[in-house]
Amino acid sequence: KGVSVGRVVVFNDITNIKKSLDKQEYLLSHDSLTGLMSRLAFKNKLVQIIKKENLPIGILYFNIAGMKVINNIFGNEFGDEIIKSVGSIIDSEVSNCGIVAKMNGDEFSALIFNATEEQVNELKNRIINRCAEKDKFEIFVGVYVGYSFMNDQKENFDNLFKEAIGHTYRKKLIFAFGFYSEIFESLEVQLSNSAHETEGHIVRLKDLCTKVAVSMNYTVSEIKNINLLALTHDIGLLNSSDKFLEKEGSLTNYEWEEYKLHTVRGYNIALATTELIGVAECILSHHERFDGFGYPHRKKGNDIPEMSRILAVIDFYDGQLYPKKNVKPKAKAEVIKEIEKNAGSMFDPRIVEHFISVVSALEN
Fold it and tell me: In angstroms, rounded to a whole number, what is the distance separating the alpha carbons of residues 28 and 15?
């Protein structure tokens, strides 16, 4: 009695618990999309980084240009691939001399240890140039980069970090127009290479739309908009199946109804994209007919935006001269005769007059 005659040893396998805790810790410290250090982990790591042996520290802040436009036009999955690729480029350039973290949706930060201004400038330019390589991405990808330096431990890191962010956003204000132009140039290439367009179609549309607009005394701003419409009118078809668009012969009723929705999809993309809001209604209406038998809303006459009415004539003209494969092209005289015949039904008679005047002048 009172004498120990044995012991019970209990073993608990906590492997799965440990794995679960490790996974949670990883998710807290890493961005789920890029796998880079998270914003929270970046903030927590500052205490370890801001030491005398790491000074001067270069503080860089990156913002990917036009991500809202890219997401709206090409889709969020495509946008995510851009963010992952840019993050990978930054990481590959920085990992041997500092750290990188994913900040907000399309922004990154990097800290470069023992940095010099020359080193930071070279690194910044390499990243910008690598991101802008058009053979790497299907579209142009621009990056705004701002930076500051921490030379002394006594300096306030938060203020220096805000300074770097401020430089980035100032560059965004200055260079945004140029970057958006590059994105839309890339869009033109994408649309020109897609299944629903013939080679050179968009270039020819823009050229004739400009000439007709000039003949109708459009302002420079209005001419810019009709060029943008010529470029983006079929933007709603971008994510459609190539098999569907390349189909030979007639579409089924279902396929035809699905095809007609591209005007609405394009309209929604344009409404969500600041740079395209001015042509959103025109994108929606570019398949309306002057007699009210078009789609999607059967608008009639002057209820249809004038730019849509101009585009309707020119799009028909170019489509007849340069049809898709296995369709015989028509002669110019035959197409013009057909356009004149449909003035008042398919097309606005006044715009038909301007169009024929422009085409006749070009012939002469």
Answer: 20
Write down the mean pLDDT value for the chain: 88
Percent of the chain whose pLDDT exceeds 70: 85
- pLDDT for residue 70: 86
Q: What are the residues facing 108 on neighbouring strands? A: 62, 102
Cis geometry, peptide bond prior to residue 296 (ω within 30 degrees of 0): yes
Q: Kindly list the strands in the beta sheet with 143-150, ordered across the sheet, starting from the edge strand earlier in the chain.
A: 98-102, 107-112, 57-64, 143-150
Q: What SS3 state is found at 163?
A: helix
Mean pLDDT of 281-303: 96
Residue 84 makes CB contacts below 8 A (sequence gap 6+) with 33, 34
Which tokens go with 334?
């035959």
CB neighbourhood size of 355 (10 A): 25
- Look at residue 121 and give its three-state secondary structure: helix
- The pLDDT score that the predictor gives to residue 160 is 97
Q: What is the DSSP annotation of 233-299?
A: TTGGGTTS-HHHHT--SPPPHHHHHHHHTHHHHHHHHHHTSGGGGGGHHHHHHTT--TTS--SSS--
